[in-house]
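Subject: GCN5 family acetyltransferase

B.,
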Amino acid sequence: MNAQANPTLAVRPMLPGEGRLLAEIFRSSITELTGEDYTEMQQEAWAAAAEDEAAFAKRLGDQLTIVATLGGAPVGFGTLETDDKIGFLYVHPAVAGQGVGAVLADALEKVAGGRGVASLKVDASDTASGFFARRGYVPQQRNSVRCGDEWLANTTMHKPLGGKETAQ
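Prediction pasted inline below.
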């Protein structure tokens, strides 16, 4: 008799060939989860960053990219753009609010802390700023970012990790 486990949430590195799927998660997350904070035109301009899926995959490949899976299927991803900055953190709308973002953020914070980073920063969208604030990130400044023909607001937020800054 074979026992089958319930689908479990896990994280792993991005695999070659996943760029298209992660671009889809990126676009779906923006178009379905940010409507209370951004106009449809802003959402379209933001999501357009993944229109060229090969370029988007290369961008993710150039960063440390981790993928959250549920039952083995990718449901979200996050990146460290630099050792001390989260670049992307996106969750598929079908699993929003189920802890996927927290698992990704935990993993990114652990990697950054393991690299000796004293604090981690993120340019959080208005939609995500509450999520990051609940995790201990503190707003530092408001930003306006040009995306195509649109301007999008976000907030740079920092969280101390307890690591040590390494002298250069």
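The helical segments are 19-33, 40-47, 53-61, 100-114, 129-134.

T.
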